[in-house]
Amino acid sequence: MSLLSLALALALAQSPTPCKSGERWVLLPFQPVALTTAEARQVEDAVRRAAEHTSGVCLEPRADTVAKVRARGGRIPGCVDAACRGAQAQALGAQRLVRGVALGVGGGRSVALTLVDREGLESHAVVALSGEGLPPGQEEARAREAFQELWKTHLSSAGAVKRPGSAWPTVLLAAGGVALAAGVGFGLAARNTEAVLSQGNAGCPGEGEAFRSCFTGRLREGQRQARTANVLMGAGALLGAGGAVFFVWELP
Question: What is this structure's pTM?
Answer without folding.
Answer: 0.56
